[in-house]
Design a protein that fits this description.
Elements (H helix, E strand, L loop, with lengths): L1 E6 L2 H11 L6 E6 L9 E2 L7 H10 L4 E4 L2 H5 L2 H7 L4 E2 L7 H4 L1 H11 L6 E4 L2 H11 L3 E5 L8 E4 L2 H10 L3 E4 L6 E8 L4 E3 L4 E2 L2 E3 L3 E4 L4 E4 L8 H19 L6 E10 L2 E8 L6 H8 L4 H10 L14 E8 L13 E2 L1 H7 L4 E5 L2 E4 L2 E4 L3 E9 L2 H12 L3 E2 L10 H7 L2
Parallel strand pairs: 1-2, 1-4, 2-3, 4-5
Antiparallel strand pairs: 6-9, 7-8, 7-9, 10-11, 10-16, 12-15, 13-14, 15-18, 16-17, 18-23, 19-24, 20-23, 21-22
Helix pairs in contact: 1-10, 2-4, 6-9, 7-8
Bound molecules: adenosine monophosphate (AMP) and glycine.
The site of glycine (GLY) has 8 residues, from loops.
EC number: 6.3.4.13
GO molecular function, one term: phosphoribosylamine-glycine ligase activity
Cofactor: Mn(2+); Mg(2+)
């Protein structure tokens, strides 16, 4: 099978790594990719947001499957363009991707499907904003309605900050604060059948102890030793399947990866958000534990044959990933700095720990930073403690001037599990 992956993050590197290890994959292409993906896939300089260009590339490389990684191309209709060219595509249509593209649309679908989520108001004027903030009280949760790369959400105890964020956006969703640990649960679906993956936890805040601003995600781990073993089944029944059924009922079936961001509150599971694609950095740890070869699973979703798929097989290992970000991320990051130590990780830490590239590019013989999240170090181990140790040991070999990372990824969960 010839596969083309669209995107350039650590998520796409994780997807490409798994696909490159799949014996059914005979050729692997990626556009636009990054310096790390270049080691496992042939790169093509195609604009990921240009559906016609992506479809033309897929035709040219005779792809049997196209996998669209990020949300922006999905919301722009790239999966539709690929399917219109007669090529199977893993990723939802433009219309179904609105589940991520518009928080107001996601709320409407959840209401129709009876999916538990925070109570909310959609506001477009300062008066509506004030009314909604008053109605819920602190802490305030204010979300830009559109795509914002994980940075459009402000959770704050300060009404002035809440109001300022709301009034800087055209349309916002203001909602009830959900208290409780967060879980990211991904499911692969063909629009009818829903196959959940293993749950993971993401660390959204920039700094240790969940301080600092929200980011795209600074680290993740899986499994979740503290979670109820029935959680996945419960979320399948109350969240994932009803949402997929509702979108099919509307004539806009969702096929691809449905990502449920959940809060486990005292009153039960609530959806914080949906995404229409694999999460980053959770994908790095989920795929590190998936034993079933990936290409056949994604192709079955694209072809509508998931019901015939064998149950997924999982490793009992734990996995931890730690993101290395540029100076000033999630603000405008500093780029163009040399990254050292990548060869040492490959020589000393593989196969249990490895680097997945995000914002990197090759600059002559050097690999340099080219984005906010630069790379993520992923490691597996018998338990979270060992996976953590391996991840941080590998990370300590990498030098990038001014870079930042969290030191507490999976620390509490490992401690609580008594690993
Ligand atoms: P989102 O982009 O909707 O996932 O929001 C980013 C992050 O903001 C989430 O991972 C949560 O940590 C936080 N957040 C979003 N909505 C809420 C909420 N209703 N209550 C508490 N925290 C929230
Ligand atoms: N890790 C959060 C996201 O992918 O949106």
């Amino acid at each position: 099978m010839k596969v083309l992956v669209i995107g350039s993050g650590a998520r796409e590197h994780a997807l490409c790594r798994s696909l490159s290890l799949d014996p059914d994959v005979s050729a692997l292409h990626c556009a636009p990719g990054n310096a790390g993906i270049a080691e496992v896939a042939e790169l093509h300089a195609v604009d990921a947001l240009d559906g016609a260009a992506v479809a033309a590339l897929a035709t040219e490389v005779e792809a049997d499957l196209v996998v669209v990684g990020p949300e922006a191309p999905l919301v722009a209709g790239v999966a539709d363009a690929v399917r219109a060219a007669g090529i199977p595509c893993f990723g939802p249509s433009k219309e179904a991707a609105q589940l991520e593209g518009s928080k107001a649309f996601a709320k409407e679908v959840m209401a129709a499907a009876g999916v538990p989520t925070a109570r909310s108001y959609v506001c477009t004027t300062p008066d509506e904003v004030d009314e909604a903030l008053d109605a819920f009280g602190a802490p305030y949760v204010v979300k830009d309605d559109g795509l914002a790369a994980g940075k459009g959400v402000v959770v704050t105890g300060h009404i002035e900050a809440a109001r300022a964020h709301a009034n800087a956006c055209d349309r916002v969703v203001i909602e009830e604060y959900l208290d409780g640990p967060e879980v990211s649960l991904f499911a692969i679906t063909d629009g009818t059948t829903v196959v959940p993956l293993q749950p993971a936890q993401d660390f959204k805040r920039a700094l240790d102890n969940d301080e600092g601003p929200n980011t795209g995600g600074m680290g993740a781990y899986s499994p979740l030793p503290w979670a109820d073993p029935k959680l996945v089944d419960e979320v399948l029944q109350t969240v994932l399947q009803p949402t997929v059924d509702e979108l099919r009922r509307r004539g806009t079936p969702f096929s691809g990866l449905l990502y449920a961001g959940l809060a486990i509150t005292a009153r039960g599971v609530r959806v914080i958000e949906f995404n229409a694609r694999f999460g980053d950095p959770e994908t790095q740890v989920v795929l590190a534990r998936l034993k079933t070869p990936l290409a056949g699973v994604l192709l079955a979703a694209a072809n509508g044959t998931l019901a015939d798929l064998e149950p997924l097989r999982w490793s009992d290992d734990a996995a931890v990933t730690v993101v290395v970000a540029s100076h000033n991320y999630p603000g405008t990051p500093r780029t163009g700095d040399a990254i050292e130590g990548l060869d040492e990780v490959a020589a000393q830490d593989a196969p249990h720990a490895y680097v997945l590239h995000a914002g990197t590019k090759q600059d002559g013989p050097a690999v340099v930073s080219a984005g906010g999240r630069v790379l993520s170090v992923t490691a597996t181990g018998a338990d979270l403690t060992q996976a953590r140790e391996r991840a941080y040991t590998a990370l300590s070999r990498i030098q990038l001037e001014g870079s930042q990372h969290r030191t507490d990824i999976a620390a509490k969960a490992a401690e609580a599990a008594g690993d």
